[in-house]
Amino acid sequence: MEMKVLSDDKIHVVLAIYDPKGTYSRHAGVAMASMFSNTTSSVCVHILHDETLNEGNRKNFIELAEKYDKELNFISVTEHIEKLRVVIDVDYHTGGFSRGTLFRYFVQDLLPVDRAIYLDCDVIVNMDIKELWDIELGGCKIGAVYDGKIESKRRVFLYRYAGIDMENYFNSGVMLFDFKKMRGNVNICAEALEFFRRYPYAIHPGQDCLNLIFQKSALIIDRKFNYRKSGADYSDMTGKLWHLTSLKPWEQATGLPTDALYWRYFAMTPWCGDLVTDITKALAGSHLTHAHSRHCFKALWQQLKRNLSPKPIAVLFKIAVIWYDMIYRVRKKWGYT
């Protein structure tokens, strides 16, 4: 049965939430509050979640959407994740990342819309999201921001081996999808499964996979739609979608202006009752609070680098990538995939 396509008279935004401790939903709340307070257009937020979304967080999301008169749609992906378990080792492939990184692969099948914006939960939308929504993709299927030059030798080897275009490698934390152009010729979930089977040693499996799928049909868009701290200009914080990669304000004080930006929007959410406690915890764990410890760890790391040669690790990595690809090809030839 074909999925009935809804009208695109509103902006459709997707957030993926995996929250086993019950403490991650609040960051999605910050993303929503920042977006709602800067956008006057009609917005419908689709929350992809599994059984880890508890009732208290669900109620807070509903309260937040009602406060700004925006629409909200909860979509469970639990059944889809269980189907994935039959094919791949979900826990292994998401070992270094949240299981929620897999949720985005279902968006094409679960959302009856022609286009949608996907956002990681660690973003602050300090701009009108309609600017991103209105981007004309032309013949491309997605729009995303360039991720930066790839320095890691292991990543360079893998991307050359797999055929991933490093010159246009994009960050998958913010993406504009055109599902209308994908229908009939791209199946994100199916192609992602193929990738995980073939390259189980991918460094950033979720992002690498999407780059391979869309490398010939991705439009690289303005950096302001996925603005990260590397080379950032903090003199003007407005008109940008800030992506809080690496150190997070809720984990420790980073000393950057994005800390204040995060806590300002956090205060607009139903989770703000814990504001003082959370800020205090972040300061207590800050590398800025314990400057001497930071130097000790830096010295220890330098000693480890001198004692442990990276060459054997690099060789083993290359062997593993080629070995698993050979196994994949043989299994596929004999119909075992």
Describe the secondary-structure layout.
Layout: E1 11-17, H1 25-38, E2 43-49, H2 55-67, E3 71-76, H3 78-87, H4 90-93, H5 107-110, E4 115-119, E5 123-126, H6 130-133, E6 142-146, H7 153-162, E7 170-178, H8 179-182, H9 188-198, H10 205-214, E8 218-220, E9 240-243, H11 257-266, H12 275-284, H13 291-307, H14 311-333
Parallel strand pairs: 1-2, 1-4, 2-3, 6-8
Antiparallel strand pairs: 4-7, 5-9, 6-7
Helix pairs in contact: 1-2, 1-11, 7-14, 9-10
Characterize this entry briefly.
The protein has helices at 25-38, 55-67, 78-87, 90-93, 107-110, 130-133, 153-162, 179-182, 188-198, 205-214, 257-266, 275-284, 291-307, 311-333, and strands at 11-17, 43-49, 71-76, 115-119, 123-126, 142-146, 170-178, 218-220, 240-243.
Element-by-element helix/strand order:
EHEHEHHHEEHEHEHHHEEHHHH
- Gyration radius over CA: 21 Å
CATH architecture grouping of the largest domain: Alpha-Beta Complex
Helix-residue proportion: 40-55%
- The CATH topology label of the largest domain is Spore Coat Polysaccharide Biosynthesis Protein SpsA, Chain A
The description of the largest β-sheet is: 7 strands, mixed
Uncertain segments are 1-5
Order of strands, main sheet, comes to 3-2-1-4-7-6-8
Number of helices: 14
How many individual β-strands? Answer: 9
